[in-house]
């Protein structure tokens, strides 16, 4: 019988974290920001059908960066959780906080117990009501959960992007201002991004109970002009 | 509650009813293991009654009375029997009220669930089939006297027209070209619509005809509620067009009933 090599737990965690970070850094970043009428989520994504941002429930959106198949599995699981919870209890009992906690538990569990950590970072956003503020929960690959009250940046090299968003930030800014600033931050100094390179979705009060809406590339071009 | 995960070879996909079964969330009077409680149905069950649907030029009109009965008693005066199934379709129910409302809730969630998981909306025909499967699964309960017979109609975005589907207790569904009505007063309602129907009617005419059909049904059938002028309760009328599901406002329905009643008085109605 061969004895496995001893690996210190610190080293093992470090290796896993590095592995996950590398995987996440390969993809493009994503920004969610609170604006005057709700929450806007902006991702660099040339695909029209493989979405990074999606609807979970009436007032809850999901966004992920990293490996598509891994965060998409998390998204579907979130939709299932929210729909069954709303069906078993009531629509108003579905909230982002409990969903974000479940995601954090799951990611933490996979990070410590499975062969390979998930190479994803996800965001759960909830549009507020009169009694509840807007919520942005940012959950990292190892299950760390942070609650942001203005904006959240997901992805590999977030520091430079976050700095740019921070410097442009205004309380209660308009959708056009928020989209301009976030797209500028994603593009960096050397590039420009147009409607076709972006995926943008909103959580904002509209005509019905479902508040999630995607912006078309035409609408985006108009906002960016 | 935990996050539901399934192995890729064992995934329920966009099927919400299947998911609910897998997670053993109770729904309807059927036990989670699919067994039907034995014995005869209790006598005093709430029953839903007359619902109608008809096509007009830009879509469909659907309407239903508000009365629920338990045996010979009126159990509820403000029941809704017409529901939006999703943005472009509506479902109306007749039969045992409890299971019927539960079926609608499952159906509504199923359509939205499919849309979110798959990222595309089901076709109108796909929605009609889904409802058929739910009615079929309900067949054992129907055999015990708890039948649910829905009426489904919507706007087919691909074809650019309104379409109506009727069901039987076995889940069989049939597309209607013009109109239909179901429930205990369905026969009277159907006759009224048949006499007043023209292809390509305007929305206003179709709403008026639906209201007239419900009036006639309530006139003949004790389990169908007419306009309740004293309490201000009127049948629920909705349209589905290219702009989606819209309820006809209560005050408009009230005004249409008022003018219908005035006309009848003027004619000196005896029968």
Index terms:
heterodimer, A: 225 residues, alpha+beta, Glutamine Phosphoribosylpyrophosphate, subunit 1, domain 1, five-stranded antiparallel β-sheet, 10 strands, 39% helix, globular, B: alpha+beta, eight-stranded antiparallel β-sheet, 13 strands, 25% strand
Structure described in brief:
Chain A is of the alpha+beta class and 225 residues long. Chain A contains six helices and ten strands, in the order H-E-E-E-E-H-H-E-E-E-E-H-H-E-E-H.
Describe the structure.
The complex is a heterodimer of chains A (225) and B (271). Chain A has 6 helices and 10 strands, in the order H-E-E-E-E-H-H-E-E-E-E-H-H-E-E-H. The N and C termini of chain A lie far apart (68 Å). Chain A is globular and about 65 Å long. In chain A, helix 4 (158-168) packs antiparallel against helix 5 (175-187). Chain A has a 5-stranded antiparallel β-sheet, with helices on one face. Chain A has a 5-stranded antiparallel β-sheet with strand order 3-4-5-6-7. Chain A has helices at 9-25, 68-88, 96-113, 158-168, 175-187, 217-224, and strands at 30-35, 38-44, 53-57, 60-66, 120-126, 135-139, 145-148, 151-154, 198-204, 212-214. Chain A has a single domain (27-224), classed as Aminohydrolase, N-terminal nucleophile (Ntn) domain (Glutamine Phosphoribosylpyrophosphate, subunit 1, domain 1, 4-Layer Sandwich). Chain A is of the alpha+beta class. In chain B, helix 5 (186-196) packs antiparallel against helix 6 and helix 6 packs across helix 7 (250-266). By secondary structure, chain B is of the alpha+beta class. In chain B, the strands form 2 sheets. In chain B, strands 1, 4, 5, 6, 7, 8, 9 and 10 form an 8-stranded antiparallel β-sheet that branches. In chain B, strands 11-2-3-12-13 form a 5-stranded antiparallel β-sheet, with helices on one face. Chain B contains 7 helices and 13 strands. The mean pLDDT of chain B is 89. The longest helix of chain B has 22 residues, at 97-118. In chain B, 47% of the residues are buried. The A-B interface holds A 49, 51, 54-56, 73, 76-81, 83-88, 98, 102-103, 105-106, 208, 210 and B 1-5, 16, 19-20, 23, 25, 27, 87, 105-106, 109, 112-113, 116-117, 119.
């Amino acid at each position: 019988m061969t004895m496995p090599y001893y690996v210190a737990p610190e080293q093992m965690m470090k290796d896993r974290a590095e592995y996950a970070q590398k995987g996440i850094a390969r993809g493009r970043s994503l920004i969610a920001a609170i604006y005057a009428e709700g929450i806007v989520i902006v991702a660099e994504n040339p695909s029209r059908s493989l979405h990074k941002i999606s609807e979970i429930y009436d007032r809850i959106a999901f966004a992920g960066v990293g490996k598509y198949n891994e965060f998409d599995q998390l998204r579907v699981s979130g939709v299932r959780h929210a729909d069954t919870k709303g069906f078993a209890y009531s629509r108003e009992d579905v909230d982002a906080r409990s969903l974000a906690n479940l995601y954090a538990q799951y990611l933490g569990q996979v990070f410590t117990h499975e062969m390979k950590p998930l190479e994803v970072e996800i965001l759960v956003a909830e549009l507020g009501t009169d009694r509840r503020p807007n919520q942005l929960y940012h959950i990292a690959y190892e299950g760390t959960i942070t609650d942001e009250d203005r904006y959240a940046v997901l992805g590999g090299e977030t520091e430079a992007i976050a700095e740019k968003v921070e410097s442009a930030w205004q309380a209660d800014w308009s959708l056009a201002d928020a989209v301009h600033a976030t797209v500028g931050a994603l593009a960096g100094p050397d590039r420009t991004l147009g409607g076709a390179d972006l995926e943008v979705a909103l959580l904002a009060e509209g005509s019905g109970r479902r508040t999630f809406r995607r912006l078309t590339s035409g609408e985006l071009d108009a906002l960016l002009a | 509650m935990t996050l539901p995960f399934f192995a890729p070879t064992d995934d329920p996909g966009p099927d919400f009813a299947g998911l609910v079964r897998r997670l053993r969330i109770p729904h309807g009077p059927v036990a989670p293991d699919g067994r039907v409680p034995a014995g005869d149905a209790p006598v005093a069950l709430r029953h839903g009654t007359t619902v109608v649907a008809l096509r007009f030029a830009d879509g469909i009109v659907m309407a239903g009375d508000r009365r629920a009965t338990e045996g010979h008693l009126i159990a509820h005066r403000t029941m809704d029997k017409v529901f939006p199934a999703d943005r472009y379709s509506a479902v109306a129910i007749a039969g045992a009220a409890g299971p019927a409302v539960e079926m609608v809730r499952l159906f509504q969630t199923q359509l939205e669930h499919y849309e979110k998981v798959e990222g595309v909306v089901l076709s109108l025909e796909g929605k009609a089939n889904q409802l058929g499967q739910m009615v079929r699964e309900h067949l054992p309960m129907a055999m015990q006297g708890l039948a649910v017979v829905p009426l489904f109609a919507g706007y087919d975005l691909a074809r650019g027209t309104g379409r109506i589907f009727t069901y039987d207790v076995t889940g069989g569904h049939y597309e209607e070209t013009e109109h239909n009505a179901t429930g205990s007063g369905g026969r009277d309602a159907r006759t009224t619509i048949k006499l007043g129907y023209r292809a390509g009617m305007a929305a206003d005419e179709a709403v008026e005809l639906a209201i007239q059909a419900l009036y006639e049904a309530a006139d003949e059938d004790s389990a169908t509620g007419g306009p309740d002028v004293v309490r201000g309760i009127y049948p629920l009328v909705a349209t589905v067009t290219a702009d989606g599901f819209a309820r006809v406002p209560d005050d408009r329905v009230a005004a249409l009933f008022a003018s219908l009643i005035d006309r009848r008085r003027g004619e000196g109605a005896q029968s």
